[in-house]
Amino acid sequence: MLEEDEKIEKICSVCKKEAGKRCSRCATVFYCSAEHQQQHWKTHKSTCHPFKICSNEQFGRFLVATRDIRAGEIVLKESPLVFGPAQITGPVCVGCLQGLEEKKHMECEKCGWPVCKRSCQDHSSHQAECKFTVARGSKVSIQHFYVPHPTYQCLMPLRCLLLSESDPAKWDALQRLESHDDERRGSEQWRNDREGVAKLIPRFFKCENKWDEDEILRIVGIIHVNGHEVPLTEPSSVAIYNMASMLEHSCRPNLAKSFTNRNEVILWAPNAIQRGERLSICYTDVMWTTGNRLEHLRQTKMFSCECERCNDPTEYETYSSALRCSGFQKDGKCKGYLLPVDKSEWTGDWCCLKCHKEVTGAAVGQILERARMDLDAMQKHREDHCNKYVKHYSKWLAPNHQFLVDVKISLSQVIGGNNPEAIKKIPYDKLMNKIKVCQELIALFEKICPAEARAFGATRFELHAALAELGRRSTESNNPAAAVQLEDSLYNATECVRMLQHEPSILMESKICAQAKKNAETLKALLGIKD
Ligand SMILES: C[S@@+](CC[C@H](N)C(=O)[O-])C[C@H]1O[C@@H](n2cnc3c(N)ncnc32)[C@H](O)[C@@H]1O
Prior knowledge:
Elements: H1 2-7, E1 21-22, E2 30-31, H2 34-44, E3 51-56, E4 60-65, E5 74-78, E6 82-85, E7 106-107, E8 114-115, H3 124-135, H4 155-166, H5 168-175, H6 181-184, H7 188-198, H8 200-204, H9 213-226, E9 228-230, E10 237-240, E11 248-249, E12 256-259, E13 265-268, E14 280-281, H10 290-301, H11 308-311, E15 323-324, E16 337-340, E17 350-352, E18 358-359, H12 361-377, H13 383-393, H14 402-414, H15 422-425, H16 428-448, H17 453-476, H18 482-500, H19 508-527
Parallel strand pairs: 11-14
Antiparallel strand pairs: 1-2, 3-4, 5-13, 6-10, 7-8, 9-10, 12-13, 15-16, 16-17, 17-18
Helix pairs in contact: 3-4, 4-5, 4-9, 7-9, 13-14, 14-16, 16-17, 17-18, 17-19, 18-19
The protein binds S-adenosylmethionine.
């Protein structure tokens, strides 16, 4: 793809004469002189990205790096085309989108939609729907605050539809996004959207002839396929971006996603990316098993993932979706792992990679369902519950299985994590166990999700804290290993900061990052390291 670039005539974007300079930020436009480059910057800066848009039959549009991207570089920072409440949500403030409690809210003076404070009724994102609601002739009246509210399902689609009048340029960009209209038609989700949105909007807003059902359903499809969950409010909200919506999915993506306090998305590269590589994010949860990821992508994004990770049932020999053969055999001796007989059929029969015994899909399903239910029921903030779960399900699940990893992440945080002093009081074996759990998690993340910045950041923080405590104890007992342990702690604190540097101040991760920064300074002083 990029070889074609080499054949492109290098012509100055300003005077169209032969050009010897290339824009170093995007590597896609040329100039004959520094003056012309400077002159062109005003127009060029909005499209100056280190990637270009490509497309093919299978993926539609996708983004490809036009130059080498350094580890840590921001690849794209973008404001949303539109943002609003999630489809299934209790009442939230229509200005800032924060959740509301029954007696602690007010109503927009013009239209009646709930807001948390007066200034929120003037929020720009509420204006078009406010006018539109006023036009229906009566104010909205939200009465029930503790259940998902049906009218809220209409809000995000309405915000999108009203862009055609309030912001035609954004409306055009929205129209170009994939809706999977035909594939969605007839599905359970589509039927719910038809009843809950496409039929409700005309009825509720008294606008029978404004949009037809198919038009509304197409927009709902665009929201499902392209919407990003934004975790800045409680409950989370949804935003649609223009460029970011063109990123393809991979179950081992190369970009990390974060948000600013203003709902901008930040896509950055935790590790270096080579020119010509395709840029990707994960549309589902990278920690899930292959079966769960595939199913979720099929249901919500309408495609069957064929990425490298999905094509390798061992998932880079981590066996993250595997079960243990021993759990299903009477003698319990076989140490092999079970994986599906057919790698694209995760609900079919499974087979042991070692002894080749087969287990029915139903038996596998039963264990997974039980493990999932116990996971939902347990108290993850309790170390004893976590240990009990890990001990019990290690009989059936491979050590890197989604459910065990979920509990091990909790365990890494709860061991000595009650308060800043708690780690000083835990016995040596617990401290070593915390270190072991963190190291195993990091080794797993490096293989299956090297760009999962938040998981890395949080686990690096726990590991740094445990190693600092180990170093402290070693120092007290004159153990010569102390220096290495403290250096290792410093390395993990620094990595934590690197991974969480783009997290917004609203989120806990940003506080963890700030604490890691402080701790790194203390460790440097202790080790006599100067910047
Ligand atoms: C958010 S959109 C990405 C942009 C889209 N390709 C476009 O042209 O607007 C998501 C859709 O892109 C396609 N897509 C993204 N990643 C894919 C992948 N790994 N394999 C197949 N299709 C993919 C699917 O059709 C998916 O529903």
